[in-house]
Amino acid sequence: MRNFLEKFFPVVYANEQLSARTRNNHSIYCQYNNQPLQAYVASISLAGAVSTLFASYFTRNYGRKSTLLFSGAFFIIGVILKTSAQNLGMLLVGRIITGFGSGFANQVSDDVHITTSSKRRTRRFYHKFSHFKGKIYPLLEKKLFL
Predict the structure, then answer these.
(1) DSSP string spanning 8-57?
(2) CB-based burial of residue 99 (10 Å sphere; 0-12 exposed, 13-18 middle, 19+ buried)?
(3) Cβ neighbours, 10 Å, residue 63
(4) Cα(73)–Cα(80) distance, integer angstroms
(5) How far apart are CA 56 and CA 53, in angstroms?
(6) Is the pTM here over 0.70, yes or no?
(7) Are 94 and 85 in contact (CB under 8 A)?
């Protein structure tokens, strides 16, 4: 992570080094007070939410298989841009394109589709598991990542 911060977020890296030397404790709620870093983190979710609006139209007109192929292409292009990024702009564009892929894939591969397309005897399990997953994941995330 050190190289990543040094290359794309040098201000955050310098503040981190300074606080490590002075033993200055930051707030756990706002550890990195840096707008470009916040834009980097939020860009994938925002792009995914926006692309879902277009993905419904695309799925209705071209089908699930084409939508999954299209989302896979977005993922591949986004990953290539992110790994070959030379500056923050290129990194953000790659992250946004990956978010578009996420939104398109989310449109097709949601729990409702998995539940309705499963066999009759396993359908109830998938339905209950999707509800369980929706409840337990936030709890685990809260306990593990705080």
Answers:
(1) H-HHHHHHHHHHHHHTPPPPSS-S---HHHHHHHHHHHHHHHHHHHHHHH
(2) buried
(3) 12
(4) 11
(5) 6
(6) no
(7) yes
pLDDT bin (cut points 50, 70, 90) of residue 68 is confident
- What are the φ/ψ torsions at residue 84 (nearest 5 degrees)? -100, 15
Question: Which residue, among 88, 95, 85, 91, has the nearest Cα to 10 in the 3D structure?
Answer: 88
Q: pLDDT tens-digit profile of 22-35?
A: 655 556 556 667 78
Q: Are 117 and 137 in contact (CB under 8 A)?
A: no
Residue 139's Cβ-side half-sphere holds a number of Cα atoms within 13 Å equal to: 5
Q: Token match 């809260």: residue?
A: 142
Amino acid at 42: A
The secondary structure of residue 109, as a DSSP letter, is: S
